[in-house]
Design a protein that fits this description.
This protein folds into 2 domains: about 5-75, Glutaredoxin (3-Layer(aba) Sandwich), CATH 3.40.30; about 85-220, Glutathione S-transferase Yfyf (Class Pi), Chain A, domain 2 (Up-down Bundle). Helix 5 crosses helix 8. It contains 10 helices and 4 strands, in the order βαβαββαααααααα. The radius of gyration is 17 Å and the shape is globular. By secondary structure, the protein is of the alpha+beta class. The structure holds glutathione. Glutathione binds near residues 9, 12, 14, 65 and 66.
């Protein structure tokens, strides 16, 4: 029997990505919630970077959401999440890199910035990233299905989706305005949200809004 543990934190979109990858692969894992404000000694001992997600598979550790996703894809060949064709695979990885280096990187700066004068400019750059995704990804005339690469659902969709799950937090607390013209993005989000695995383990906006409100209250108490 497969022995998989996933170390997570409930607000972490990278952990959400790892959870979604496992769910899409129909792999059951034991989830262990880590308190990131007071990291337990046992976690620091096993974690190379002190961050979640961290995966333990038959005693072997894998860190970093992107590497975990690729590891799971390679270790479990059923329910493929990377296309077979090399160029499509490269495209999927390029969008994963876009998610990490543009969307999540800016979002981290935005969430950690308590200078409200900084919120508008960073939020505006994030909106530009969404326009890029809409135009270069979803408006691509060669695309023939509801997912980023078309008909084939992939790790690219799974890397991006947790950002959209939490967008309400940025709208409520960080002056972010979703660019209304990005209608294809909304249709893509709906298509991903409608997948059985995503319905099973995804979280509604309210989940994140309530927890962020609590976090903010405890930070200012
Ligand atoms: N590059 C990492 C980022 C993971 C990350 O930033 N995790 C955050 C929670 S969302 C974390 O564990 N933060 C704790 C810390 O930095 O001390 C990945 O992709 O897995």
């Amino acid at each position: 029997m497969t022995n998989i543990e996933l170390f997570v934190a409930e607000l972490c979109p990278f952990a959400a990505r790892a959870r979604l990858v496992l769910a899409e692969k129909h792999i059951s894992a034991t989830e262990i919630e880590v308190d990131l404000r007071q990291k337990p000694g046992w976690f620091l001992e096993i974690s190379p970077n002190g961050k979640v997600p961290l995966l333990r598979h038959d005693g072997k550790l894998v860190s970093e959401a992107t590497i975990i996703a690729e590891y799971v894809e390679e270790a479990f060949s059923k329910h493929r999440l990377l296309p077979g064709q090399p160029h499509a695979r490269a495209q999927a990885r390029a969008w994963v890199s876009f998610a990490d280096n543009r969307l999540y990187a800016k979002t981290e700066v935005l969430l950690h910035s308590f200078d409200s004068d900084m919120h508008g400019p960073i939020a505006a750059k994030l909106a530009d990233d969404l326009r890029f995704l809409e135009e270069r990804g979803l408006a691509n005339p060669a695309r023939t299905g509801p997912y980023l690469l078309g008909a084939e659902f992939s790790l690219a969709d799974l890397a991006l989706y947790p950002w959209f799950e939490q967008v309400a937090v940025l709208e409520r607390y960080r002056s972010f305005h979703f660019p209304r013209e990005c209608q294809r993005l909304l249709a893509w989000q709906e298509a991903v949200a409608d997948r059985a695995a995503v319905r099973a383990v995804g979280k509604p906006a309210q989940f994140y809004l309530e927890r962020y409100a609590r976090l903010l209250r405890s930070a200012t108490a």
